[in-house]
Specification:
Elements lengths: L2 E8 L3 H12 L4 E5 L8 H6 L1 H20 L14 H25 L3 E11 L2 E6 L4 E11 L3 E3 L12 E2 L1 H4 L8 E5 L3 H12 L3 E6 L10 H14 L2 E4 L1 E7 L5 E7 L6 E5 L1 E4 L3 E3 L6 H4 L22 E3 L10 H15 L13 E3 L4 E6 L2 H7 L3 E7 L4 H5 L6 E7 L5 E8 L2 H13 L4 H5 L10 H9 L8
Parallel strand pairs: 1-2, 1-5, 2-3, 5-16, 7-14, 8-9, 8-14, 9-10
Antiparallel strand pairs: 3-4, 4-5, 6-15, 11-12, 12-13, 17-18, 18-21, 19-20, 20-21
Length: about 475
């Protein structure tokens, strides 16, 4: 006999666990299936992604500040050392606390969960190959696919998670490498490269394109690269990795120009493969029920997260759009609400994104490149942190705020920040955009002084050429 539920969610990451919680709040009996071998909830984000990487970023930022920044403000700190084992322990304890928090939320909301591999055998039917052995049959009117994404492999190069690592292995290196080559100049590569650079590694980023952080406003990425280079990053742009020789004590990495040309040889202790992620749909039995996938292997849904098969839904990284935990969380709530007939909705024009380096980079809405390509008539306001009082007093004045607004209506179309606490500050602009605000609305809003957020107000004022602080 199959156990019956209102909603079965396959995957316990930010999309899956939030969908189950919202469904339970709406009176649905929910079951979550999680395949992770560690028998922990939270998916990639909590276990080997967003959370552990931020713990390590924070710890290494504190170490670097104590080692190299205190003297600038008159504080003497000699013989500052780090304990890598304890640093990794701090990371692990943070992960453990948060994953256990999800278990508590499941218990509080009366949500069942099981560890194993879920497979859709027919509409409304899921078979679970239990992690501890055996099979469990489940039934539900609605099934939500929230299986997330996995690391994209580099063709011909085998990741062993020791010397050639993915983001997972890069979070657990037992020693600081003397040299690290990061393949991919995107968010993951730059963040994890930052961690190991601060601890002493010589980091070289090899990026196929001629710019780092593709997709981010190009004016921001240019300054971003200059700042990272000043910090000690090396960059090989417009280059591709064509092979890694593992036979020696050092890894031999062959790189070639992306547009053709002579090969170059590099030596390194560790190679971090960070060329992106791909949707995870293997073994789900989608072919059994005819769920449609696009050419990139993503589950195709309509605007309300419904697949082409009635009763089967999909959210998060397994679908189209940015692979961001908060995007999955918003879709989770919207999907659960749609399942019970409510008007769940996500505004995809207001999905912030953050690179948690130092300084941080945060963005929301359209880039200047997007607007130019679309022929949109826009105005731009910009304000540097060098002219912001709080940034100067905190000795963190690299970067700027840029706000883009429609030339006719003044409605905010996008905002881009590179600077201290950018990831926190971008939310102010996101809220304004959600309410359809004009740049003038931010410009007329009193901000406390001295704060970093004044730079947002001044950028908004600059849209109309009336900046006051310089």
């Amino acid at each position: 006999m199959a156990d019956t539920y209102d909603v079965i969610v396959i995957g316990a990451g930010p999309g899956g666990y939030n969908c189950a919680i919202r469904a339970a709040q709406l009176g649905q009996k929910a079951m979550v299936i999680e395949k992770r071998s560690s028998h922990t909830l939270g998916g990639t984000c909590l276990n080997v992604g967003c959370i552990p990487s931020k713990a390590m970023l924070h710890a290494t930022e504190v170490y670097e500040e104590a080692s190299h920044g205190f003297g600038d403000i008159g504080i003497s700190a000699s013989n500052v050392e780090f304990d890598l084992e304890k640093l990794l322990g701090f990371k692990d304890s943070t992960v453990e606390a948060l994953t256990k928090g999800i278990e508590f939320l499941f218990k509080k909301n009366k949500i069942d969960h099981v560890y194993g591999a879920g497979k859709i055998t027919a509409p409304g039917k899921v078979e679970v190959a239990l992690a501890d052995g055996g099979v469990r049959e489940l039934e539900a009117k609605n099934i939500v696919i929230a299986t997330g994404s996995v690391v994209t492999d580099l063709p011909g190069i085998e990741i062993d998670e020791e010397r050639i690592v993915s983001s997972t292995g890069a979070l657990a290196l037992k020693n600081v490498p003397e040299k690290m080559i990061v393949v991919g100049g995107g968010v993951i590569g730059l963040e994890l490269g930052s961690v190991w650079r601060r601890l002493g590694a010589e980091v070289t980023v090899v990026e196929f394109l001629d710019m780092i952080a593709p997709g981010i406003d190009s004016e921001v990425t240019k300054q971003f690269q200059r700042i990272l280079k000043k910090q000690g990053f090396n960059f090989k742009l417009g280059m591709k990795v064509t092979g890694v020789d593992t036979s020696g004590s050092m890894l031999g990495v062959t790189i070639e120009p992306a547009k053709g040309g002579d090969a170059e040889q590099l030596e390194t202790d560790v190679v971090l493969v960070a060329i992106g992620r791909r949707p995870y749909t293997e073994g789900l039995g989608l072919e059994n029920v005819g769920v449609a996938l696009d050419p990139q292997g993503r589950v195709i849904t309509n605007d309300h997260w419904q697949t082409n098969v009635p009763g089967i839904w999909a959210i998060g990284d397994v679908t189209d759009g940015p692979m961001l935990a908060h995007k999955a969380e918003d879709e989770a709530s919207g999907c659960a609400e749609r399942i019970v007939g409510k008007a769940g909705h996500v505004n995809y024009d207001v999905i912030p994104a953050v690179v948690y380096t130092h300084p941080e980079v945060a963005t929301v809405g359209k880039t200047e490149d997007d607007l130019k390509a679309a022929g949109v008539d826009y105005k731009k306001g910009k304000f540097p942190f060098t002219a912001n009082a709080r940034a100067k007093t905190n000795n963190v004045s690299d970067g700027f705020v840029k706000i883009l607004a429609d030339a006719k209506t003044d409605r905010i179309l996008g905002a881009h920040i590179i600077g201290p606490h950018a990831g926190e500050m971008i939310a102010e602009v996101a809220v304004a955009m959600e309410f359809g605000a004009a740049s003038e609305d931010i410009a007329l809003t009193c901000h406390p002084h001295p704060t970093l957020t004044e730079a947002i107000r001044q950028a908004a004022m600059d849209v109309d050429d009336r900046t006051m602080q310089m």
